[in-house]
Amino acid sequence: MARGKLRIYLGAAPGVGKTYAMLSEAHRRVERGTDCVVGFVEHHGRPRTEVLLHGLEQIPRAELQHRGGTFTEMDVDAVLRRAPAVALVDELAHTNVPGSRNAKRWQDVEELLAAGIDVISSVNIQHLESLGDVVKSITGVRQRETVPDEVVRRADQIELVDMSPEALRRRMAHGNVYQPDKVDAALSNYFRPGNLTALRELALLWVADRVDEYLNEYRSRHQVSKIWGSRERIVVGLTGGPEGRTLIRRAARLAEKGAGGEVLAVYIARSDGLTSASPKELAVQRTLVENLGGTFHHVVGDDIPAALLDFARGANATQIVLGSSRRKAWQYVFGPGVGATVARESGPDLDVHIVTHDEVAKGRGLPVARGARLGRARIVSGWLVGVLGPVLLALLLNTVDLGLANDMLLFLALTVAAALLGGLLPALASAALGTFLLNYYYTPPLHRITIADPKNIVALAIFVGVAVSVASVVDLAARRTHQAARLRAEAEILSFLAGSVLRGESSLEALLERVRETFGMDSVALLERTGDHDPWTCAGRAGTGLSPARPEDADVDVPVGDHMALALSGRVLPASDRRVLGAFAAQAAVVLDRQRLEQEAERARALDEGNRIRTALLAAVSHDLRTPLAAIKAAVSSLRAEDVSWSEEDQAELLEAIEDGADRLDHLVGNLLDMSRLQTGTVTPLIRATDLDEVVPMALGGVPEDSVRLDVPESLPMVAVDAGLLERAVANVVENAVKYSPAGRRVLVAASAHAGRVELRVVDRGPGVPDEAKGRIFAPFQRHGDAPRGAGVGLGLAVARGFAEAMGGTLNAEDTPGGGLTMVLTLRAEGGSGTDPRPADPAEEEPERQAAP
């Protein structure tokens, strides 16, 4: 069955009109005859949105019972049975009520897509998992409801629903988004103009990046080489010289002038390795460009202008920034230089900026070795000099008589020139032809191949010997130079690879992208399989081209062990490149293994934590739980004894002992279960606006009536909490305070409001806790001092802090002036900023509507 298509309406904040746009699209599709149903849409009491639900078929929601309440979620099975062409599923990042089919709504959507049902959904930019820290730094609020970025990236269509901050605030002020009693709090907190502007920029940039990805894929799929200037991309050509810093800063200023500008610094190293690049300077320039928000790229290419232009066109760049040449005036006789060549061949769509700097015309730091590898042009030149040169020289010498010795020296010079240009074979051809011409034209008898004077035979023999020796030495030097240059190039690349490891670049995709850039390939993939006959799977890939499904399908494949291979597509690489490529392949395997080991270590840490908890639970059962059980059993055995007559007072005392033991058991087991839920992350608060004076008195039911003095003013603002969790947290803190408070000294429970927060302080006059132990008393199974074993398993404060943090609050210990300990429970006032990770508005996070722990 073909997978369904996902369309997402992305917004910067609640109220921009995502659900409205989604329902409008549904009506358009229904009018065209498309079978479209509403799987789950929440109108949040907005009249215009609610009106759009009329006329659309709505799948009945599933009802779930949780903590004594009834909640509704999307009925995935009902939607699958109905099998519509299109299903509307609002709020993609929503967390389902515990007991639902899936933990997250995006997982429900994945099931619908797998069943071939198209889905239209909505999500806000702050719910993307990768942007959690950014959103928190902007708004001071960490989003608990998140959706993996990859889920949104895989969407077939993403449509941005945009609205200016001023327009959104007007909509809120008119009551089109929230109820009137929530508008003022929302406008003064989460929906401040600065917050909305920053979130809007995040949404625009994120969508722009996705559009850029789609554009690159389209250009690669359709083999479009022409530059499309959709955004300013500025390529900086670096030589490794000190002028590179000036070029990078200039490019950054150019990028700032256009929205979404991007800087790509590229260093092109010759494959022979004989360039005057300073590794230290390149490292400094790499750090500089990354600090300015750009990226650094390392590319190998013999023809630097062509490689630079290929990189720029491949990156869809619009501008190239180069420095003015450092060559001196006389050096231009060897060619126009990189800058002039790039400017001439860039074409009309690629602008080239030549930037002046302090190193202009000062000469290169090191001489550039030319022709370390004998290319085709040099070999052809060598043959021309070795074959045509002696003939032309003979014709010239026929017009002038310089003597046999001078003639031999001139022919020897041609042989050396042929060796320098073309290597050994052209030099040998030049020596042989020169010997023949010297014998025929200049050695008596002339115009005959015989030699009359034996001295001339010796002279010609010496000429041949010197010519062959010089040619051999020159050719050997060229070969050794080429080998050294090749090794230097490999060392440079391997040094770069080692540097990336030392810098902590452990991403497999980043490493594969480096391989693709270095060798100029279209795509690179790391393939693996579990057995010799199992299919290959892709462990990681880079590039916009199609990745090969098997190593045999790739242009270049490098095996890594028995069941892993690095596959490259784009062109066939020479055998000399495979040694370096093998190092990259080995590093890719190491990175993949490290990633998996980190995942295994994380799972091991979770298992270790679970084992620690289980061990502590067993210790609690073997010690603390046995005490009340023994007391209950002793009291029951006494009551059942037939040989003893108990008075009513004695029976009442034994029954009271049984009741006390049962209460202690209930308290201990409750804390153990709560700690287990906190450790496994299954506590999901149901946040509601709550009055402290309604919850705190209920939390004091487990302590003696005269042991606590309560001071909770009725004028306090309401707090955004889960009433059940708050009651348990306060009960644990108060019971702990009463336990350590001296006889006759009551514990004070007082509340006050401060700057959008409400503090509940539990003050005792007990022995107190030293500063170094204040953090440890909140750890599970920790009890301070010489507390008796019957005092509990040390979970009360750990559970209280866990519940407080789950509600977005804090619980800390302070010294009581005059002696004792004060527990400070800080909660967010309804409509205040506080420490709650949820937005200030109640409809922002859907779990506030129905999710529960």
TrEMBL record:
Domain named Histidine kinase: residues: 620-831
Transmembrane segments: 380-397, 409-437, 457-478
Membrane topology: Multi-pass membrane protein
GO-annotated molecular function: ATP binding; phosphorelay sensor kinase activity
Cellular component, GO annotation: cytoplasm; plasma membrane
Keyword set, alphabetical order: ATP-binding, Kinase, Membrane, Nucleotide-binding, Phosphoprotein, Transferase, Transmembrane, Transmembrane helix, Two-component regulatory system
Disordered as annotated region, ranges: 828-853
Catalytic reaction(s) noted: ATP + protein L-histidine = ADP + protein N-phospho-L-histidine
Signal peptide: none
EC number(s) given by UniProt: 2.7.13.3
Highest taxon, organism lineage: Bacteria
Localisation per UniProt entry: Cell membrane; Membrane
InterPro entries (UniProt xref): HATPase_C_sf, HATPase_dom, His_kinase_dom, HisK_dim/P_dom, HisK_dim/P_sf, Histidine_kinase_KdpD, KdpD_sf, KdpD_TM
Name used for this protein in its record: histidine kinase
Native species: Streptomyces poonensis
